[in-house]
Amino acid sequence: MTEAPFRAGFVTVVGRPNAGKSTLVNRLVGQKVAIVSDKPQTTRNRILAVCNRPDAQLVLFDTPGLHKPTHGMNRRMVEIATKSLAQGDVVLWLADVTEGLGAGDRYVADLLKKVAAPVLLGLNKVDRVPDKKRLLPLIDRYRTLMEFAEIVPLSAQKGDNVDRLVELLAGRLPEAEKIYPDDFLTDLPERFFVGEMVRERILHKTREEIPYSTGVVVESFKEEGELVRIEVTIFVERENQKGILIGKGGAMLKAVGSEARADIEAFLGTKVFLGLFVKVRENWRENPTILQEMGLSGGRDDD
Length: 303
Fold this sequence. Notes:
single chain, alpha/beta, Rossmann fold, GMP Synthetase, Chain A, domain 3, 2 domains, six-stranded mixed β-sheet, three-stranded mixed β-sheet, 9 strands, about 35% helix, globular
């Protein structure tokens, strides 16, 4: 019996905000490489992460949610996502079945119709649909948008049908040697993940009070023996947001810092001193310098 050929290639994961892309990518690689929140537009950068299987290596692009942009930061996020479409051997469109099909899905479909690579549709969050018969008419509605190589109902959170999805994605990749060594996880630097861990704690602690108006920039990252000294600036747009983030007697900022420091120490495997500083910058989301410091340069070339 002939052994199946090894396959390796790039899988671009796209979808509307809050479809569960980062949850799925984290599950596939077996480690947390993308922050997760129940707020849409959590992912702002393209994150490359590697999923290794005995028969294949899937290089995943976790991209910002596709949406019609309203300001500079959103425009750069959408540019990053659309540019990643051209880099994938396969595209996985992840859709949230609890949201139904709307104008945002038609916007995504119009973008994907221009892509040469095969597109698989992953219908996520099926664990939240008690009556699975309700999925059949939804699948039929998605079929009217465009032609899919496969349609897979799944739950990224619970893991339902995720193995089947990976098999189908791997089967669409070219026959090739591994692109990255087995111990390679991501192409992003440590300070990127430090900034993301701080931002994740802000999202979790402040909930609806400070939705998308915070930006995190790692100003310094210095190794001092067995200690890593990190200083982070958190940008907000208004003075009242600064007050919310700092909290009474500094309690909120202290809580954010404490939880973020624990995450960072676990990630880096060393003791960390974390200094957080909150600055008000009106319209920072339109500031090219701040966006550049956050890594939102409008996409990268990966030649």
